[in-house]
TrEMBL record:
The keyword Transcription applies. GO terms for biological process: DNA-templated transcription initiation. Residues 399-418 are annotated as: Disordered. The lineage of its organism: Bacteria, Bacillati, Actinomycetota, Actinomycetes, Micrococcales. GO terms for molecular function: DNA binding; sigma factor activity. Belongs to the sigma-70 factor family. ECF subfamily. Residues 179-281 form the DUF6596 domain. Keywords: Sigma factor, Transcription, Transcription regulation. Gene3D superfamilies: 1.10.1740.10, Winged helix-like DNA-binding domain superfamily/Winged helix DNA-binding domain. This is RNA polymerase subunit sigma-24.
Length: 418
């Protein structure tokens, strides 16, 4: 085993978090016990692995260590009920495998956390915490709410699961149909966190992005029993078409590369072909939903061999459809980007200024770009500075700083603080 630095060990641990905690929850039926036990195992890993090296099977090592810690917790509490007796008898070789339509522990965990007894924001937040090991701060950023609010939301969700005795069981077909919308929402946000991380430590988290795609494929497979809802295809297409651009998204120096500046020859043609095929199938079924429309927008972008060939009229029309289904400020912000290409930056700026998404970095970045195009450089510099202040993502910060510096003026002479 090769010794690694603490940061590298933390990356390995984070990549394995969802798999391990899902298995522990299946074994013990207790979210808090599983998280506490895994937390102790992680502390041991961060102490030992930098010196001893990462074991050949990190997930297995964490699972075994956390399993022992969980049993220690139960012994210390002098629990002698049936749960303890059953858990104490389990070994790595005798843990029963799940059966039924969902056999993947992580997917099973998502369906469990998406129980209708929980409010939708709580479902999504709790699953992001358990599946990806995201911090409360990262989840709060994804929801655009204060960290304390998110911490309370997650704590209450865990308490409700325990109090209501929501079972950690394999969903049947009726459960899958009832919980599908919440599951898709979770997978969408997991993918978004992987695609552009809210953390200051990572530009993206490909382990989360790839896991979201894998789980969405699994959902698509099991949902065939309820007629394969087209929104499942839409979400998978949206992920694939976004993921196809990944090789061109981050520059060698770590800065974000925007869509119009990307080298499109580096895009993954196989993912694009698969995504386009799914979009065509959605169009054939003619039951549009938000994920399908977003996938269609991505299909238009990836269909253009050069940014100058982008069909902005079609993109604007698709955003018009999306606004009917999801009339949110963020959808309106994205639509304004297309409006700027069709009607000019002055028209788009009026729309953007009316949205007041002051805690959202893309709002500031969009305003900055529109102000730059209008020649209002001082205002643009201030908007870029505000965007930098509202994002922790290193690639995004580097790109914003470079745009601000390109304007010249006082900021460039002082040097970037990003």
């Amino acid at each position: 085993m090769t010794a690694l630095g603490a940061d590298a060990v933390a990356d390995v641990v984070r990549a394995e978090y969802g798999r391990v905690v899902a298995g522990l929850i299946r074994r013990f039926g207790d979210i808090q016990l599983a998280e506490d036990a895994l937390g102790e195992a992680l502390v041991i890993a961060l102490e030992r692995w930098p010196q001893d090296g990462v074991p050949p099977n990190p997930a297995g090592w964490l699972t075994t260590t956390a399993h022992r810690k969980a049993l220690d917790h139960l012994r210390r509490e002098k629990v002698r009920d049936e749960k303890y007796a059953e858990a104490a008898m389990l070994t790595d070789d005798t843990i029963p495998e799940p059966t039924g339509p969902v056999t993947d522990d992580r997917l099973r965990l998502i369906f469990t956390c998406c129980h209708p007894a929980l409010a939708e924001p709580a479902r999504v937040a709790l699953t992001l915490r358990l599946l990806g090991g995201l911090t409360v701060a990262e989840i709060a950023n994804a929801f655009l709410v204060p960290e304390t609010t998110m911490a309370q939301r997650i704590t209450r969700a865990k308490a409700k699961i325990a109090k209501a005795r929501i079972p950690y069981r394999i969903p049947d077909q009726a459960d899958i149909a009832e919980r599908l919308e919440g599951v898709l929402a979770v997978l969408y946000l997991v993918y978004n966190e992987g695609y552009l991380s809210s953390s200051a430590d990572n530009a993206d988290r490909q382990d989360l992005a790839e896991e979201a795609i894998r789980l969405t494929r699994a959902v698509r497979s099991i949902s065939s029993g309820i007629g394969s809802p087209p929104e499942v295809d839409g979400l998978l297409a949206l992920m694939l078409l976004s993921q196809a651009r990944r090789p061109a998204r981050i520059a060698a120096g770590g800065s974000l590369v925007t869509l119009d500046e990307q080298d499109r020859t580096r895009w993954d043609a196989d993912l694009i072909d698969e995504g386009h095929a799914l979009v065509r199938e959605c169009l054939r079924r003619n039951a549009p939903g938000p994920y399908q429309i977003q996938a269609a927008i991505q299909a238009v972008h990836t269909d253009a061999l050069d940014a100058s060939l982008t069909d902005w009229a079609q993109i604007a029309a698709l955003y018009d459809q999306l606004m009917v289904l999801q009339p949110t400020p963020i959808v309106a912000l994205n639509r304004a980007v297309a409006v700027a290409e069709l009607d000019g930056p002055h028209v788009a700026l009026a729309v953007v200024d009316g949205l007041k998404l002051t805690a959202y970095a893309p709002w500031h970045a969009t305003r900055a770009d529109l102000l730059r195009r209008l020649g209002r450089e001082d205002d643009a510099r201030r908007a870029y500075a505000a965007a930098i202040a509202t994002t922790e993502n290193p690639a995004e910060r580097a790109w914003l700083a470079s745009r601000r510096e390109s304007l010249g003026g006082p900021t460039s002479r002082r040097g970037s603080r990003a």
